[in-house]
Amino acid sequence: MKILVADNIHEDGVRELRKLGEVEVRPGMSIEELLERVKDADILVVRSATKVTKEVIEAGKKLKIIARAGVGLDNIDVAAARERGIIVVNAPEAPSVAVAELTIGLMLAIVRKIPAADMSMKSGKWEKKAMMGRELRGKTLGIIGTGNIGKEVAKRAKAFGMNLLFYDVVRDENFAKEVGGKYVGLEELLRNSDFVSIHVPLTEETRRMIGEREIAMMKPGAVLVNTSRGPIVDEMALAEALKSGRLGGACLDVFEKEPPVGSPILECPNTVLTPHIGASTVEAQREAALIIAEKIRKIVVG
Fold it and tell me: Are residues 215 and 169 in the same domain?
């Protein structure tokens, strides 16, 4: 059995995959090389860099499994895979803590002006009065999507003394009771939250879920946090709300186009921006690789 690993995954995961068959690790392939090498592969493993298009799937005549060592499946043509009877798996549980910690970190960074204070200090200034901030304690956090990551964010926000509102098409009332949160409609969440944090997958239903209309519903001065997928938010509408002062800030780890060259967000005031690093911890990458290896093993061995 041949396993083609097209993106870098943790070595512990690769070690487990080698127990199942011949493993070729080839990160950074051109599309031409990928189309050639996938021809002999029984299993294709990717992270986010490699786009598993219909063309790639059609080239992989022997493919039985496509595995993504990460949360979403938006870089894989799942419909094309299913047409071929190819099993598609991912590891949505792996980076939950990493993304949740980054979410809280971004919120702290913006309310305590940490990036601005750091830059000021390094330029030789001592601007203590200019760095007056706010606390998370007592503020209301609206979490859109209470899957693995949304729940981990809620647990941490509770520890900071925040009030919690949830929106999800599938409600987990037991969890809400556990953390003292409350499920409400999307409009109610937007109108009553000091921070709105997005934790839903990118689908046709969630694409531009937060657009001009939804942003207009948010509390004046509220902060929008997105560590899920960029296209869920209308970036142009968000930029306009930031420039006008309608919103108090935005913390973004994801963008409509990555890297966001030419995005109006780059010119907006009161933002904290990171280059899609939510799952970029040693621990999360190791866990994702091991989870994927185990899921593949169960399919292959039973």
Answer: yes
